[in-house]
């Protein structure tokens, strides 16, 4: 029979893994049933719990609850960094869609519980396919598994220091999304500049509404599909860079 210490350790391990699944790309989407996330978290906790350093048994129930909340927050912080960079492709899609006239064709995405344009929805779908297809979800789970040795369960984590990585991630996502959308934005700018010059030279033509909008729409679509393979490669590199930050982030959480 497992002792009380191992039961407490297993519960805290399950808390950290549950926090990961709350925000982990793809698996945190509304389309994934909550039962699947719960079963996956418990199964991983059952595998990892017996081999990680045993936690001390707290003297009060309140201390145990605070420890559980802390472990959930650690899992959320670790998974959130990758989740932010995962959304860079969707952000780039929204930027490109708004510039090429797709912004008015919003559709409700039930998996994310928000409205997206068609280009942004395509970006989310492609990011999900790449994330799972390249086994990045397994790499993220392995990184969180390694965190139990760098930051054993039951220890006080520096959540403020970990939160600073979130702020850095938000800055990186905005910068990355703009960089991924830059080719289409540049094309739309040149198209609008051309239409503006022609309209200035010949005001009676008034080609902005007759030609300009259609030119942006068709040109943006052609450019989007031309640069899509390169955008996916750049997006994969961004997500991998985010996962490379995890060991350093774990050390920060451990106060090292």
What is the first-to-last residue Cα distance?
36 Å
SS field, number of helical segments: 9
Helix content: over 70%
Shape: elongated
Taken together, the total number of domains comes to 1
Give the uncertain stretches in residue-range form: none
The SSE order reads HHHHEEHHHHH
Write down the overall mean pLDDT.
80
- With strands numbered from the N-terminus, the spatial order across the biggest sheet is 1-2
| Radius of gyration, whole Å | 23 Å
Structural class comes to mainly alpha
Number of strands: 2
Strand content: under 5%
Largest sheet: 2 strands, antiparallel
Report on the structure:
Helix 1 packs parallel to helix 3, helix 6 runs parallel beside helix 9 and helix 7 runs antiparallel to helix 8 (207-244). The two termini are 36 Å apart. It is built from 9 helices and 2 strands; from the N terminus they run ααααββααααα. A two-stranded antiparallel ribbon has the order 1-2. The protein has one domain (4-253). It has helices at 4-23, 34-48, 61-86, 88-100, 118-133, 136-150, 159-201, 207-244, 246-253; strands at 107-109, 114-116. It is elongated, with a radius of gyration of 23 Å. It is an all-alpha fold and 256 residues long.
Give a short synopsis of this structure.
The protein is mainly alpha-helical and 256 residues long.
């Amino acid at each position: 029979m497992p002792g009380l210490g191992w039961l407490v350790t297993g519960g805290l391990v399950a808390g950290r893994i549950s926090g990961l699944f709350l925000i982990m790309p793809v698996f945190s989407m509304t389309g994934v049933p909550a039962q699947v996330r719960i079963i996956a978290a418990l199964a991983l906790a059952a595998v990892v719990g017996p081999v990680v350093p045993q936690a001390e048994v707290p003297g009060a129930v309140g201390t145990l609850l605070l420890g559980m909340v802390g472990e959930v927050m650690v899992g959320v912080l670790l998974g959130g960094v990758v989740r932010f960079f995962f959304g860079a492709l969707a952000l780039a899609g929204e930027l490109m869609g708004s510039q090429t006239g797709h912004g008015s064709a919003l559709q409700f995405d039930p998996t994310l519980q928000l409205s997206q344009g068609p280009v942004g929805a395509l970006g989310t779908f492609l990011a999900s396919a790449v994330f799972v297809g390249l086994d990045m979800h397994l790499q993220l789970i392995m990184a969180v598994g390694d965190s139990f040795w760098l930051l054993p369960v039951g220890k006080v984590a520096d959540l403020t220091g970990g939160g600073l990585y979130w702020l850095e991630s938000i800055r990186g996502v905005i910068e990355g999304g703009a960089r991924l959308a830059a080719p289409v934005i540049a094309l739309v700018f040149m198209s609008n500049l051309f239409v503006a010059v022609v309209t200035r030279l010949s005001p009676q033509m008034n080609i902005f509404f007759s030609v300009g909008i259609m030119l942006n729409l068709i040109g943006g679509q052609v450019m989007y599909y031309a640069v899509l393979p390169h955008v996916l490669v750049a997006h994969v590199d961004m997500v991998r860079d985010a996962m490379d930050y995890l060991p350093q982030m774990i050390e920060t959480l451990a106060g090292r």
